[in-house]
User: Fold this.
Amino acid sequence: MSLLKTVLTGAVFSSMFVSLGANAVDYPTHPITMVVPYGAGGTTDISARKLSSLAEAELGQPIVVENRPGGSGTNAMRAVAKAKKDGYTLIATTSSPLFVTPAVRPVGYDSVKDFTPILNYSGPYHGVLVQADSPYESFDELIASAKSGTSISYGTAGAMGGPHLSFELIARENKAKLKHVPFSGAGSATAALLGGHVDVALVPAYRDLVLDSKLRLLGVLDDSRDPDFTSVPTLKEAGYDVEFPSVVGVMAPAGTDPDIVAKLEATFTKVANSDEFKEFMTKLNQPVRVMTGKKLGETIKMNLETFRQVAKELSQE
Amino acid sequence: MLLDAFNALMDIWVLVAAIVGIVTGIIIGAIPGLGPTMAIALLIPVTFTMPPIPAITLLLGVYQGAIFGGSISAILLNVPGTPSSAATAIDGHAMAKRGEGGRALRIALYASVAGNIFSCFVLIVLAEPLASMALNFGPAEMAALMFFALLVIVLFGGGVRLDAALMVLLGVFAGIVGLDPIEGTPRFTFDSFAMENGLQLIPVLVGLFAMSEVFLKLFERRSANQGDMDIPEILPSKVRFIDMWRMRATLLWSSLIGTFVGILPGIGSTVPAFMSYSLARARSKQPNKFGEGADEGVAAPEAANNAVTGGALIPTLALGIPGDAVTAVILGAFMLQGLAPGPFLFRDYGIEVYAIFEALILSSIPTIIFGLLLFKIAVHVIRIQPRHLFPTITILALLGAFSVNNSLVDVWVMLGAGFVGFLLRRSGFPLPPLLIGLILGTPLEQSVRQALLTSNGNLDIFWNSHIALSIIALTAICIVISVAISVFKNKRHQGSSDV
Amino acid sequence: MNLSISKLLAKSGLQSLIFLILAVFAGLGLCLLDTQVQVFSFGDSLFDARFFPRIVLVLIIVIALLCCIARTRKMDEPIGSLAGWARVFLVVGMISIALWFMPSVGFLLSSFVVASVTAFILGERDIKLYVGLPLLIAALVTFGAQYGLTIPLP
Assistant:
């Protein structure tokens, strides 16, 4: 009996050690789930799927993409924040649910504390667009006009989003009459601009329309210039102290084994920098912007603070 | 260009893709709760490795197949497989109860194909001018149009109008639960994160139609020892060309409505289906047959909801702006294949694009073939005893409601909607207006507020736009007509009772 | 006046009950409106987040009451047999319990239980068919969904 007990205890202990060690060394041993906070077919979904399929080859296990739309991305974030920290549940998330929505209303998760960033691989540039025949040739002209009494309407992809809050701040600081008109999605906002129903639109995915001379790009909301339009300044460069950096990053729940995180970061970075991925993203009209997990974490933290401040200032009216 | 494109189609893989797509679409569409979005999303990874033309043909085949497939369960079980077939269920199921299920299915099939071909022709010939026209529909115009649609459905859709109005309002209120479309703040969510998504359409649809059906059967069941319930005999069902030709005006109007409304992003295929139904009923010499199993009650909505396919592709391809969730997925698929929708698409990839359009039209042939094949089997579903069928429907309903957002909350919503649907149906209230209220309520509110935001609170924006003004005028005319008809009917009623 | 009120009461049945429920429900909604819908300070003045719901709720009350009174011609549906209601409530309750426990016991088990009980109440007495068939269907659906459609069922 006691021999049996010893053997059993030994087995239990060694299996514990084996599983601990197996965590980092043998990872992954079964399929990984990549949660996407948006519906299938959207740009985040497609780029995540491509990234995952390229990474599968490196990791040796399938990565299954699971769409969990809802709540502007907060549903998926909440779910992954609570998921098992074994490295088999990841999320490909974007700026809104990371640092905009949590700054504005309670969301049920903490972007900094509940997640470990793995890497950033993209970030669509958001621009300030006007119609091609609009009288405004530069962002300054636009603001000057709004300051002098003309009410300028601007459309965004949704209320309380990054572009909306940034522009509201500009409106306050410059005492400019900028009227926000929210739409459900960037597509509708772009359509409204094309049809002349709003004066300005703050949207991504404008490249073809600008190249076809249907729209004019006045400025870029991000922290760096759009490589397709290098002559157009960022808002900060134009003298307005706001920016909405766009990120698309892969995260894991906080507390995941650092060895697993490192392995994932190395794999995804390799894949994101590959020619195949770059070609794919160009076809998709999306930039590839790779940032390390650490840098992504810092960006998130900084922007969360900034947007919290913005929200506070805006609600004090 | 068209001939070159046709040559590009001479590839066995295109045919295979079309068939696989259509059959998958029909099957998934027929299961309540699972819809084209899910089917397409599932198949996207498969299409990664395919060349563009077969890949897109596959996905579009799924889209069309699913919209048609929804009518199968709508007709046979009174449970719409997709929201767009909710209108088909009204007369379709009535026909099925009489044993004419096969006939209803065939009418639905031929009408769907007709609508599809019509909108594809429009797509091929008029894509770019129509896309520009669509851009002229801003918030004010959309608001006017949506209000018009709501009113037409209430006034002409059948049933007591006050009851229908009440149902619409109830549906609108159901749509209000969730996040405010303009400010993004929660409304009536009782501080629950889960409720921020609001009452989603598919769970409510499945609940209102499928679960309420289950509850109704539970209520009416007579006794445990009753044995088998009576099932009507299945009548032979040949629908000849002449039968469809008789309905050509209805088919034309419905296809027009479907294509046109499909071009305008954000409305979807359910609303045009109901609008066409209401129009057909208003134009009919025997409006009372509607609801009891009129041919046109099935043909009109089915032509319209399939016509939306071609229409919805117009802004998606010409501008890169998707109209709804399904076209958004298709847009993504196009981009994956390197065909970036937008102003350059027709210029740079003309052959591929036209080949795809032609494939759309030609895929009507496999649709008819497989549709007819499936019917032979499907029609027997109606002979299954309720006590075997309904538990199955319940399980599928639970699955369908959950699968929309992978959320249990939706299943609770479905249960609630089922109970409410049961109450309403027992009391004889019409359910379709509730559905339409849910679909159109929030977009209508959003459009009105957007319009007022752009005009700084000035109501002039509605009068100044030609489009909005004409729609408002049309709405007023419809109200007058509707009131006139009922006054006329009342006078005749009183006249005859005096005698 | 007395005649019409007693006429109203005489023909009251299910419909009137529903109208009343709707009116009460809408009234409740109006009361809760201010607490449930917050208006952000940098929103618009007149057509804010509360405007539309208010109109809708008021209209519901008005039309519900109108309908109640206007239905002078038709007879209402009788409320119906108690046994029928009992069956419906029983199944609703059972589904609720199944949903409550679904995260712990899983989709397969809960949906099987629901289907089984529904089949039983609908009159099935052949045990192969009210246990076996639902079990088969539930299993088919669960595995089809999880492996065919990759839906993460609980």
